């Protein structure tokens, strides 16, 4: 973020963002805001793809994947990806305080470059059983229609992109929820342009959220404890 004082007009435009950042990940990763308009459609499979696994169907190897603790969230996404998705953000990120870091850990990155604002957070939740994780995954993904399955990610993955407008300022947010055995990975990625009042495109936000989710799931699997 730039060190010089922002113009008064921009400061006024940024006020909703300041409130958002101070509130932490809870305001951005309540994955499916009721007032948002879902934009992302289910992923289309390529011709000849015989994979019929749904967003909620466990894989045949799910029973062998048991997670006992959450990985360090701020190192779960590569510095290269952070720089790409959140220009000018400190790649170290900021871990959000948790009452129990064994079962839930979240890291957040956000920055303003010029008039372009981006926010990314990644959350890991470890549950007592695969059944509990499956139930939570099903509840979260059924709260908002309009999203779609992300094939080949975890034991089930769902992505949705929403557009919200407040005081004529657009914000587009993508959320990806992934279940891997008894763990959930939730990625939230959003952005706004405070000069044009427009939001980045659906594909940009959805692709970025899925990219971060893939890296986060890989980090979870790398730190797996049997």
Short synopsis of the structure:
The chain has one domain. 27% of the residues lie in helices and 27% in strands.
Rg is: 17 Å
Average pLDDT taken over every residue? 79
Estimated share of beta-strand residues: 25-35%
Characterize the biggest β-sheet: 8 strands, antiparallel
Low-confidence stretches: 1-35, 40-64
Helix content range: 25-40%
Overall structural class, as computed from helix and strand content, comes to alpha+beta
- SSE sequence, one letter per element: HHEHEEEHEEEEH
Rough outline:
globular
Count of runs of 4 or more consecutive helical residues: 5
Distance between the termini: 42 Å
Total strands: the figure is 8
Compute the number of structural domains: 1
Walk me through the structure:
With 226 residues, this protein is an alpha+beta fold. Strands 1, 2, 3, 4, 5, 6, 7 and 8 form an 8-stranded antiparallel beta sheet that branches. Helices cover 27% and strands 27% of the residues. The chain has helices at residues 8-23, 25-28, 79-85, 130-142, 202-222, and strands at 37-38, 94-96, 104-113, 116-126, 148-149, 156-166, 169-180, 183-193. The model is unreliable at 1-35 and 40-64 (pLDDT under 50). The chain has one domain. The protein has 5 helices and 8 strands.
What attributes does this structure have?
226 residues, disordered N terminus, alpha+beta, 8-stranded antiparallel beta sheet, globular, single chain, 8 strands
